[in-house]
Amino acid sequence: MAGFFWMLGLALLAQGFLCILGDVEVGCKKWVPDTEDKGSVKCIECHPGNRLVKPSGTNPQQLCTPCEDGTYTYQSLGYRCSSCIQCVGALVHFKDCTPKSNTQCRCKEGLRCGDAGCTFCVDECGKGEEPTKKRDCRPCPKGTFNDQIHQDCKSFSTRCPDPTHIIVFQGNASSDIICELPQPPTTLPVTNPKTKPEKPDGNKEQLWPMESFAVIGALMMCLIIFIVLVSALIHCKGKKEKAQRRTPSKTPIVISSPSDEPRTLIAIECSFHEAQQEQGNSTESLISKDSEEEIV
C-alpha cells in the first residue's frame, strides 16, 4: 500500500514538472544499450525541447534536460539551446517562445516575412511584380508575368494547353495568355438555284452623286448670271456719269414780263440800246469788209 502511494506521488510530481515546463517531457526519449559500458544506455533522441547533457548513463532521464527560460531547440541531440528572438521593428509578436519552438513573429501590414522563421520583413509584391534580392519589388520583365502574390515572374505560354483552342489574349504583366474555342463561321443564307440572283441597282447608288452635281451646277449658273448682271449695271452707270460730265450746263435766260416799275423799264431800255449797238457794230464791220474786197 505504501508503494502505491509512493508511485502516485512520483506521477503527480512529474505531471507538475511538465506543466511548469509547458508540456515538455524531460530526459531521453529513445536509447539503446551501451556496448562499451555494461549496465549503461546510450541516448539516440531527446524529448523535444531538451538538450543532451551526456551521451550515455545509467538513467535515461538524466541524459537530457529541458532548455532554460528564453531558449529553445529543434535538435534531437543538440548540446546547446538557441536564444529566442525578439519581435522588434517591422516584426509584431505573435506567439511566445517555448523550449520546443522559437518566438513567432508576424510582419506589419504591407510587408511579408523574409524567411521561414520570419526573422525579418520584406515588401510584399503584388501581381505583375516579383521580389528582388534587395528585399523590394520590381515589375515583371517583358515576356513574363506573375498572377500570384509575392512570387517570381514566369514566361508566357507559347501555345494553348488544348489544341482545339486558339489564343485570344497575348498576356500582360499579371496574366498569361488566354485561350478560347474559335467562333463558328457565320452561315450564309440559302438561295434557290433556280432563282436568279438580284443584280445590284447601280442607278440607286449613282442617284445621289448625280443629284449633287445637278444642284451644284445650278448654283454655279445662278452665281455667274448674278455676276454678269451686276457688271452690266456698273458699266451702264459709269457711261452715264461720263456723259453727264461732258455735256455743258446751259443756264436758260429767263425774260420776265415788263412791269410798270421805273427800274424795270430803265433796265429793259438799256438792254435794247446795247443790242442795237452790237447789231450796228456788226453791220459796220460787214460793210467795211465788202468795201475792202471791191478795192482789191
Detail the topology: elements first, then pairings.
Blueprint: H1 2-20, E1 28-33, E2 41-46, E3 50-52, E4 56-57, E5 64-66, E6 71-72, E7 82-83, E8 91-95, E9 104-107, E10 111-113, E11 121-123, E12 129-131, E13 137-139, E14 144-145, E15 154-155, E16 166-169, E17 178-180, H2 202-246, H3 262-295
What would your notes on this structure say?
The protein is an alpha+beta fold. Among the domains are: about 20-85, no CATH class; about 85-120, Tumor Necrosis Factor Receptor, subunit A, domain 2 (Ribbon), CATH 2.10.50; about 125-185, Ribbon (Tumor Necrosis Factor Receptor, subunit A, domain 2). The chain contains 3 helices and 17 strands. Strands 1-2-4 form a 3-stranded antiparallel sheet, with no helix packed on it. The protein has a two-stranded antiparallel ribbon with strand order 3-5. Mean pLDDT is about 75; it is low at about 1-20, about 250-260, about 265-270, about 270-280 and about 280-295.
